[in-house]
Amino acid sequence: MDLLHSLEEKCGFQIRRIVFREELALTVYILSQNGSMRKTYEHFQHSMKIASKVFARGLRALL
């Protein structure tokens, strides 16, 4: 079982406009960039508000 599937089952991790796979990718991207939100919202083309919300959900799911 992969990380994506495990978190999806455990947390019901998905919001309306962003697919779960992208939520996980965004969270891992932020962690790999040492928290650079500016790079993240430019890379994923989401607003800072959406990127922050998704990251918070992703972090809770990983913990």
Automatic annotation (TrEMBL):
A Pfam family matched by this chain, by name?
Answer: DUF8040
Tell me the domain of life: Eukaryota
Annotated DUF8040 domain ranges read 2-62
What name has this protein been given in UniProt?
DUF8040 domain-containing protein
Q: Which organism is it from?
A: Platanthera guangdongensis
**The organism's lineage?**
Eukaryota, Viridiplantae, Streptophyta, Embryophyta, Tracheophyta
